[in-house]
Sequence to fold (129 residues):
Amino acid sequence: VKADGIPPNLTFFLVLDELTKVINFAVAKPVRESLWRGLSNEARYEAKPIVDTLANRWGSGSAAFLMALLDRIMLYSGLGEVLADGTKTLFGFPPLLILCAIAAAWWAFVSADLGHIRHRIDLELKKQQ
Fold:
């Protein structure tokens, strides 16, 4: 977002921060907590900080890497265009939007696959009881 040297609005950042927290507590946290279902408290206590830290850092690092990679691909292949204000577009959309759409589709696939795997594990556990 270009602001022509005007500092960003603090209220805007506070609203975005709260929205991020809401999404984290409403979606991401329950999904992460469901990973630990069925484990002992000791195993959960030992593994949870490591997995949470790696997931957060992997997410941030991979997002930065993918944006840089897409920028290089656009630069060297001639894909996309640079608008008059200096912003880049790919197929008429901001590159970040395209990466988010790809990530959303990937997460949908992975979530469905993990749900299927978890369902099979639950069925196996029921058979053993």
Summary: The first strand starts at residue 81 and ends at 82. Residues 36 and 43 are 9 Å apart (CA to CA). DSSP finds three helices and two strands in the chain. The beta strands are 81-82, 88-89.
